[in-house]
Amino acid sequence: MSVTRAVPKYFDFLIEGFGRGEVGRHEHLGHWEAAPDPAALGAADFGRAQARLDAILLEMFGLADGQRVLDAGCGFGGTLQAVNERHAGMRLLGVNVDPRQLEICRQIVPRAGNRLDWELADACRLPVADASFDRVLCIEAMFHFSSRREFFREAGRALRPGGALVCSDIVASRAARGLQAAGFRNEAALRDGYGPWPDLWGEDADHGALAAAAGLRRSVLQDATRETSPSHRYTVPSGIDEGRDPGDPMLRAALMLRWLHREGHLRVLYMRFDKPA
User: Fold this and answer.
1) What residues does 133 pair with on adjacent strands?
2) Engineered SS bond to 216: which of 104, 146, 175, 273, CB 3.0-4.6 Å?
3) Phi-psi sector, 44: left (phi>0), alpha (psi -120 to 50), beta
């Protein structure tokens, strides 16, 4: 399959960091049960917060041995690695538009009769048969896809009756459109550093409506905006603040995301959608 979707620029740094042993297999904001003490934070704390988010979503998943699971936008394979370690007889498929990330995923060794496959593919055009998976997962990747609507349609098509989609997503408030911080416009800053982000303001429709159009019913909605905010201590380097434009597109995007989060213009959502049996 020919895949030409753009890969976010920040993955260049994450891939380099992974190669040096400085970055783990997770690329999301993580989940903090309580606000951490800034003076006591260490390099491993962010990794633990990321592992905690995986645990929360996997519990929401309701997995059982012998299931077929697809991870759309699988990153470095951290979540499927956790499934591989906890369950047996699983058929696990990770899809991604970046062959570099898939090469990192292929380092994971299957265990307990599991099968691990990694495929270069667009999440909005999944290379799978109809009704072929018990679970579809998407952690903090949907906003990069060319269309949330098309992804929901594909997830609904791929799921068997009684199956479920579990995902986390980041949505910026439409009220923030046109606002500025540190002398630069938020939309340009986020697209330049964290793009592709085609539907930054969620203008197509909300998740519930998109899921309903795909034949899915939302059963869980958890707002984790507060629990993800502390991670900006890691995504924004110390010494960088809203008082000046850092110049580098990656730093500018990280700064803008933190500003939107602090000002209440950003929501982080965990969701489960079920396909009727």
Assistant:
1) 159
2) 273
3) alpha
Reading the chain (277 residues) residue by residue, the pLDDT tens digits are 445 468 888 898 899 999 999 889 998 999 998 777 766 667 688 889 999 999 999 999 999 999 999 999 999 999 999 999 999 999 999 999 999 999 999 999 999 999 999 999 999 999 999 999 999 999 999 999 999 999 999 999 999 999 999 999 999 988 888 776 655 667 888 888 888 999 998 899 999 999 999 999 999 999 999 999 999 888 887 666 655 556 778 888 888 888 899 999 999 999 999 999 9
CB-based contacts of 20: which residues, under 8 Å, 6+ apart? none
Neighbours of 15 (CB within 10 A): 18
- Quick one: which of 165, 131, 128, 130 has its CA closest to 148? 165
pTM above 0.90, yes or no: yes
> Residue 36: exposed, middle, or buried by beta-carbon count in 10 A (0-12, 13-18, 19+)?
middle
Q: Which residue has the tokens 């499934």?
A: 83
* DSSP letter (8 states) at residue 124: T
**Could you tell me which CATH number the domain at 10-33+41-274 has?**
3.40.50.150
Tokens of 81: 């690695």
